[in-house]
Amino acid sequence: MRHMETFRLIEAVARAGSIRKAAEDAGITASALNRRITRFEDEFGAQIFERLARGVRLNPAGELILQHYRSQRSDMARVQSQVADLSGVRRGHVSVACSQALLPYFLPEQISRYRHDHPGVTFSVIVRDRSRAEAELAAFNCDLALVFEPVMMVDFDIVAQCPQPVCAVMAEGHPLTKKPELRLRDCLNHPHVAPSAEYGVRSLLDVAAKSIGRQITPVVETESFELIRHYVQTEQTIGFQIPIGLDAQRQAGLVIRPVSERDVPPGVLILGQQRGRSLPVASFRFAMQISKALQDREMRDDF
């Protein structure tokens, strides 16, 4: 425990890339912080920073130290959560990295439901694309990640998964709303709005379009799913999203239709945690609740 504050300062220096900047942020002098790091390196028996002309950066030994600290911090949070649970306090903190598709409806409803039963638990939600969400998990910056079509799957334990078809989003009155089955070629024959390349929906669309000798050529390409939902109501365009981020009953003026699975196979929404990590009690219980919600959604075939 005596090194935990030093580890925290080492992480701050690594993040800032400068002892002076990290010292300013911590409210101490740069010389005091430098002495503390040097003393730690002497005790540890190896340097952990490369001293550069304009700052510092972690060397391989430092990367290992930082990974150790993050693991220790995670374990301490888990033990504190378990102690609080034993005493009946039911406190804790849950951190989640997720795609913005989870933000409008699914995640707020799940967090609210959980806090109704455990009002002492707090949450932090960081919005990331699929690869960055996995990176946040690996860096111990979050307990859980909700990822659509993960990229790396390195040290990623799957807790739950749920298939998600790609859906077309369009305004009421768009010609394609009358089609009994919506084919990808029909969508691409109209102006369309698509997510950026780093998102799972776009990856599925690119592969599917290539298989029919077409390509995605959006009139608007964006990182914002909210922009897609609004833009299709300002111009006769087609947008693409997954159903967990959509709710036709709450989005007046929109028509939501799945693109035929003959053209675009469903992707998979995955709830994951860092492999080998024991989650704090609050995070574990929230993961179980999310797992049940995704299972129920799949059983309802709720697109």
Order of helices and strands: HHHEEHEHEHEEEHEHEHEEEH
Mind telling me the C-alpha Rg? 23 Å
Helix/strand structural class: alpha/beta
Number of domains: 3
User: How many strands, which pairing sense, and closed or not: the largest β-sheet?
Assistant: 5 strands, mixed
Q: What does this molecule look like?
A:
By secondary structure, the protein is an alpha/beta fold. The mean pLDDT is 87. It is built from ten helices and twelve strands. The radius of gyration is 23 Å and the shape is elongated. It has a five-stranded mixed β-sheet, sandwiched between helices. It has a five-stranded mixed β-sheet with strand order 9-8-10-7-11, covered by helices on one side. Strands 1-2 form a two-stranded antiparallel ribbon. The chain has three domains: 62 residues, Arc Repressor Mutant, subunit A (Orthogonal Bundle); 107 residues, Periplasmic binding protein-like II (D-Maltodextrin-Binding Protein, domain 2); 99 residues, D-Maltodextrin-Binding Protein, domain 2. The N and C termini lie far apart (49 Å).
SSE blueprint:
Blueprint: H1 4-16, H2 19-26, H3 30-44, E1 49-52, E2 55-58, H4 60-86, E3 92-98, H5 106-117, E4 121-127, H6 130-138, E5 144-148, E6 156-164, E7 167-171, H7 184-188, E8 192-195, H8 200-211, E9 220-222, H9 225-231, E10 238-241, E11 254-258, E12 267-274, H10 281-300
Parallel strand pairs: 3-4, 3-5, 8-9, 8-10
Antiparallel strand pairs: 1-2, 5-12, 6-12, 7-10, 7-11
Helix pairs in contact: 1-2, 1-4, 2-3
